[in-house]
Amino acid sequence: MHAAGNDQKSTDPIVRFEKVTKIFGDLTVLRELDFEVGAREKITIVGPSGSGKTTILRVLMTLEKPDGGVIYVDGEPLWHREVNGKLVEASEKHLRKVRGNIGMVFQHFNLFPHMTALRNVTEAPIHVMKMPTGDAEERAVQLLKQVGLGDKLEHYPSQLSGGQKQRVAIARALAMRPKVMLFDEVTSALDPELVGEVLGVIRELAEEGEMAMILVTHEMGFAREVSDRVVFFDKGQVVEQGQPADIFDNPQSERTRAFFSAVLRH
Amino acid sequence: MSELFDWEFVVEILPRLLGGLLVTVEATLAGFIIAVILGLFLALGRRSENPWISQPLGAIVEFIRSTPLLVQLFFFFFVLPRYGIRMPAFVVGTLALGLHYGTYTSEVYRAGIDAVDRGQWEAAVALNFSPWRVWTGIILPQAIPPMFPALGNYLIGMFKESAQLLAITVTELMLTARVIGTETFRFLEPITLAGVLYFLVSYPAALIVQRLEARYARSR
Questions:
Q1: Which residue from A4, B70, B180, B196 has the fewest beta carbons nearer than 10 Å?
Q2: Stretch B39-45: mean pLDDT, rounded?
Q3: What is the ipTM score, two decimals?
């Protein structure tokens, strides 16, 4: 088996992929992928572009439907539901229930442009969690302060920089109190000078440690710093995984070595 | 007999023509409300994953868009009463206008909805919104404002095309002008005046639509 962090073994995984396959046309993006994430574990997925890293996050967020296999979230099948011991395709209602455990931050922010920063953060708590407006606003203000935007509550996304938009997007996802948070190349669309402020927020979240986090990123230094485990992913499968120091400094597989020598040279 | 423009006659017939204009405006606005609501439901229905909903709606939209408004007016006015469905001419005219233009506005909605960034749908899924809330809170509020110029152009189009309602005896502006002509044997003044009245409403409305377009182009 793979060398996951020993301290995670005592807890059940919050996310488990069992032989998950995803095919786009002729391309098999996920190939019977087995993959686990422990509760509160911080995982970074690295690998060549086009290797399907983002697809792992997208099938987990239910943005793409897998073509085979089963994904479990907090012990429950995500895309399926059990009927008399058999797994059948899940209803939209079931998807909504299980999906509630997961949050996601996108490469291109995807803030709602017709809402202020504050309303971007309160909208889902009010309409999905049915939280009273006052409570939702109180919490949103607190979250926006936490990401350093306490003075931008009434700003619209068009009035914010990329780094500020991404921090609002993080606050918006946090407001739903997910057990697992997915970060999909969240700094790739940012100007270089704005990357630091977003990574700083994510670093703080990682240190708080409450949520499991799965990051797809090209920021190798950051991955080394915040991850409990680094997963090298290529051609639809996990090639190698382990603690950051092992993977970065002493990769076992030829493909991993070739990838790191290519990215770290730049 | 050569006709000279008779201003006294103009003053005499103006109130009747304004009455006709009022009917034209009422039919246009009522028809527009129908078109705007119907268009939304047609657009949403055509997006349905259920082919039993999307396919027939698509066929109906294409059929109506490909036939003259006059066919629908006559069908509702002359054919339906044979099957016991009788409505006043004004109601028939308004419904036909609304139905005809509803198929056009449905295309405006389709384009407006398609123009909303895919990332908005993905964020909506990630935040677990209900389908109702996705449409009413996220997608439509972004899709509809950019549609205002196109909807405004259809409103102006309906205002002018409503002249066809004369064919089913709705005494709107055009029919009023023709009736005055046949009663008095003077067509120059009523027909000219009708044209002027159409222009006085259409042209400022077109200017407003242009300003909406410019404003939207700037805010993008």
A1: B196
A2: 96
A3: 0.91
pLDDT for A7 equals 46
Q: Which helix (H) or strand (E) holds A43?
A: strand A42-46
Domain chopping of chain B, boundaries: 7-219
pLDDT of B154 strictly over 70: yes
Q: Which two tokens stand for residue B130?
A: 């209900």
> Are B164 and B73 spatial neighbours (Cβ–Cβ below 8 Å)?
yes
Contacts of A124 in chain B (CB under 8 A): 127-129
Q: Which residues of A130-139 are buried (b: 16+ CB within 10 A; e: fewer)?
A: ebeeeebbeb
**The two structure tokens encoding residue A76:** 């429950």
The phi, psi pair for A183, rounded to 5°, reads: -120, 110
In chain B, alpha helices (H): 7-46, 51-65, 69-74, 89-114, 118-126, 131-133, 140-143, 148-161, 173-184, 188-219
- Write the pLDDT tens digit of every residue in B100-139: 999 999 999 999 999 999 999 999 999 999 999 999 999 9
**Facing residues of B141 across strands?**
none
Instruction: Name the minimum distance, in Å, from the CA of A234 to any CA of chain B.
Output: 25
**Could you give the CA distance from residue B120 to residue A161 in angstroms, rounded to a whole number?**
19
- For residue range B155-195, what is the model confidence (pLDDT) as tens digits? 999 999 999 999 999 999 999 999 999 999 999 999 999 99
The whole model's pTM is what? 0.88
For residue B191, what are its two tokens? 């027909």
Residue A39 pLDDT exceeds 80 = yes
Provide the token pair at B185. 């044997």
Domain spanning B7-219, CATH class: mainly alpha
Instruction: At B141, give phi and psi (nearest 5°).
Output: -60, -25
Alpha-carbon distance A26 to nearest alpha carbon in chain B (angstroms): 23
Which of chain A's residues have a Cβ under 8 Å away from the Cβ of B112? none
How many Å apart are CA A93 and CA A41, to the nearest integer?
28
pLDDT tens digits for range A44-76: 999 988 788 999 999 999 999 999 999 999 989
Q: Which residue of chain B is at minimal alpha-carbon distance from A175?
A: B127
| Non-local CB neighbours of A129 within 8 Å, separated by 6+ positions | A136, A176
Contacts of A102 in chain B (CB under 8 A): 126
The minimal CB distance from A108 to the residues B119, B127, B142 is found for B119
Residue A266 amino acid letter: H
